[in-house]
Specification:
- The chain has a domain at 18-61.
- Helices cover 0% and strands 0% of the residues.
- It has no helix or strand.
């Protein structure tokens, strides 16, 4: 708070469309592929993946353990 008691500097704006943060959990759910992924992601191209259940959202980020 400043001398007048306001919270003017309490929050800070972020000029970004996305941001990352780390989450540590012990119960990571593993979802199997329903088919072989299409594409390889080279030069920023898309990779289409089908899973056995709907778990990931459109803009979720995940890591393939075998290839990183």
């Amino acid at each position: 708070m400043d001398a007048k008691g306001s919270n003017r500097n309490k929050y800070q704006s972020v000029n970004a469309l996305q941001y990352d943060w780390e989450i540590e959990v012990n119960n990571i759910k593993r979802i199997e592929f329903a088919a072989i992924p299409e594409g390889n992601g080279a030069n920023g191209t898309e990779i289409k993946m089908a899973f056995t259940e709907r778990y990931y959202g459109k803009y979720d980020t995940f890591k393939i353990e075998e290839s990183g």
